[in-house]
Amino acid sequence: MKFGLFYELSTPRPFTTENQRAVIENAIEQTVLADELGFSSVWCVEHHFLEEYSHSSCPDMFLTAVARATRNIRVGFGIGTCVPAMHSPIRWAEKAAFLDLLSNGRVEFGTGRSSTWNELGGFNAVVDDTKRTWDEYCRVIPKMWTEERFSYEGTYFSMPERCVLPKPMQDPHPPLWVAVTAPGTEFDAADRGMGALILSIADVERNVPRIQEYRERIKRCEPVGAFVNDQVAIANWMYCHPDDAFAKQRGEELIATFGYMAGQTVEVSEAYPANNYSALGLLGSLRPDPNAPGEAKKPPASGLCFGDPDALVETISRWQAAGADHLIFMVQAREHLPQADVLESMRLFAREVMPHFSDSGRKVAVGA
Amino acid sequence: MSGAAALLYGNRAADDIALAATPLDTAAGDTVVIEDVEILYVLYEMSMASALERLPASLHPSVPALFGFTFMRAPGGPLGAFTIAWHGIACRTGIKPRHLVQGAFCNSTQAGDFFASRYGFACRSAEVGLRETFDRVRGHVEVDGTTLIDVAITESLPLVGAGALIKYSPPLNGTTLAGGPALVQFEAGYDFKRVLRGRPRLAAFAAAELGDAGLAPTHPIAGSHAVVDLHLMPARFQVDLVTPAEAGGARKIAR
After folding, report:
1. Mean pLDDT confidence for B180-208
2. Least CA distance to A265: which residue of chain B?
3. Given pLDDT bands bounded at 50, 70 and 90, which one contains residue A291?
4. Is A13 within 8 Å of B224 when comparing Cβ atoms?
5. How many domains in chain B?
6. Residue B232's CATH number
7. Is B2 part of any domain?
8. Do the Cβ atoms of B222 and A272 come within 8 Å?
């Protein structure tokens, strides 16, 4: 089991220079500490127009800052959006390779397609095509990295022969991942030989069949990259404190803060009915219970890592038994917690929880 | 962007929210089932400033701000044949998407009374139509020969499987509950039989005649036309009008 950090860069109103800079600087300080403590990876989302919830519109820039401030921790796109209205696949290949050089070969490349009307509508994207454009991007980006010169005639993307530069440092290329929110996307990951970055936080037991099915299907995959990245990472929350009740209370506050922010966004399925967006995305799945009034709130998911060190060892052991390879933690929401408390939580986690998982070193990549 | 509110919620005074004149019947009635109801549901974006001006402090806006039209046409059944229409602004109470109704119309006294007493709809009597033709599904509202709303979807495509389960945001209506003002939530279930999604076309939106000259749908998003078996259940949830959104949320109606 390996441990990482996951950043949305949620920012409290008002969106002053001070507030915006504090979020970014605090996050970078956390990643520097994580590097020193032996966390294995830092992941950063790409989101647009998600007021408060995520101001992380340029994950490549954040990850570059992290890479230059750290030595060993890996830097992951969590994810890069594979939608033509937002990015050309050429630009993703270039940015990831450039960061791979800047970071001395520490890039993890996650892919996805967005699940909000805020973003897809804001870019005037063709909502019905996102699954297919994602698929095409996944197939061409690794070839841009591994082939000296690349040309392609596709459905949503074409280019004449060019040398896409630079080439990444990792040989043959950075590991490929897929953001998994809607049920069934883990199959898409497995069929393509890509890692599953599971963003639908839930009870451990509910993820067991997903992970098992992923493991079975990836044995028969047709990899889109030059190697199979057979890994499952689970996005999660973490707050560790000697007082278990206090930690759990803090955790509930983080979830409530996240729910407030997520609740205001507009899921694609709410605004634009489409066959390729029939399920709720991460935002919807994290809402405590959209159909219940206050007195009937659903209890928090059992797999959340809020508690004292003993409680976290027990929870993480269950994730490990379920087959997860990585837990990637959100440790803050809208700067709700004081930065000192976040850093102390990480230190306690590294001191008293990580040693129970002997392979929790920082080498994430397979085939790198 | 300094100067923005610490939290984003409506700023309309609670006593400026229109309350239905018809008393809400909070008795636990039976679920009314109507077969083969057509529903036209069309969403537009609107300006955030405009949405915030019209939502009370107990409601968050959606981001981006959305404006929705709903038409329901029942060919017959327990309430007789009727067509009802309402338009509203997307909002959140806590975490659930809802729409705050800005106006409602019905072409049947029997159905209008039912929707008023059970869900707080303050329906104006009007000529309300919902019709599917070869190239569009059109909903329109006319009062005294003046077209107030004329909205349609065109270039429609069928939706299948889970994609055909339209996620209607339940409307909220201003009403009086237990002697005080409140918002009550429309409570319905839908068995989908056929669903189309199309491109919105707004031929008429007479804002001034609708009673709010500043109200304006802007960017079209999508519309759907569904044929459903409609289950009209007793209202279950109410929302406070004055408790700030972050401390409020929905609660069950006391019976």
Report:
1. 96
2. B63
3. very low
4. no
5. 1
6. 2.40.400.10
7. no
8. yes
Task: Look up the domain containing B191 and give its range.
Answer: 21-243
What is the tens place of the pLDDT at every residue in A241-261?
999 999 999 999 999 888 888
Under 8 Å CB pairs connecting chains A and B tally to 115
Token pair recorded at residue B248: 């409020």
A226 to each of A274, A358, B4, B189, how far by Cα in Å?
A: 33, 29, 48, 49
Q: Is B255 within the bounds of a domain?
A: no
Question: Shortest CA distance to A69 belongs to which of A43, A108, A33, A44?
Answer: A33
pLDDT value at A366 more than 80:
no
Average pLDDT, chain A: 92
Q: What is the pLDDT of residues A175-209, one digit of tens each?
A: 999 999 888 899 999 999 999 999 876 789 889 99
Reply yes or no: is the peptide bond before residue A338 cis, omega within 30 of 0: no
A326 phi and psi, to 5 degrees? -140, 145
Q: What percent of chain B has pLDDT over 90?
A: 80
**B44 → chain A, closest CA residue:** A271
Question: What is the residue whose two structure tokens read 């991460």?
Answer: A282
Q: How far is B142 from chain A (nearest CA, A)?
A: 27
Q: Which residue of B has its CA nearest to A117?
A: B64
A14·B6 Cβ contact <8 A: yes
The answer as to whether B200 is a domain residue is yes
CB spacing of A14 vs B161 below 8 angstroms: no
Domains and CATH numbers, chain A: 2-356 (3.20.20.30)
pLDDT given at position A364: 44
Query: From CA B237, how far away is CA B122, in angstroms rounded?
Result: 18
Q: Which residue of A has its CA nearest to B97?
A: A263
Domain assignment of residue B252, yes or no: no
Q: Which residues of A touch B8 (CB under 8 A)?
A: 13, 51-52, 264
**Candidates A17, A52, A275; nearest CB to B163:** A275
Return the sign of the alpha-carbon dihedral for residues A90, A91, A94, A96: negative
B64·A117 Cβ contact <8 A: yes
pLDDT exceeds cutoff 60 at A282? no
